[in-house]
Specification:
Elements lengths: L20 E8 L9 H5 L2 H12 L4 H6 L2 E8 L1 H9 L6
């Protein structure tokens, strides 16, 4: 993240190579389009909001935000960029 070293392997960037690679990742809650029904309109919305607020009271601000949106930025050298492109979502 300092743009001087590879965030994956620590190699110096722009010293041995003319290029560095920047990876930006956004993780955000995805919502499907809503279809509002008569049952939805008949709900007690105040009670629903109170229920949601009660659920969130035990969460820190960071935990609550992580459920909605988080962004990352990484600098990679050429070998790490190639590895990343082969397996960008390596969850193992």
């Amino acid at each position: 993240m300092d743009r001087l070293t590879c965030d994956a392997c620590g190699a110096p960037l722009l010293v041995e190579s003319d290029v560095r690679y920047e990876v930006k990742i956004e993780v955000k809650a995805a919502y499907d389009p809503l279809e509002i029904t008569q049952d939805d309109l008949a709900k007690d919305h105040k009670a629903e909001m109170a229920r949601i607020i009660a659920q969130m009271e035990h969460l820190s601000e960071k935990e609550a935000m992580d459920q909605i949106y988080r962004a990352f930025r990484f600098d990679l050298c050429t070998p790490c960029q190639r590895k990343y492109l082969k397996a960008p979502i390596n969850l193992a």
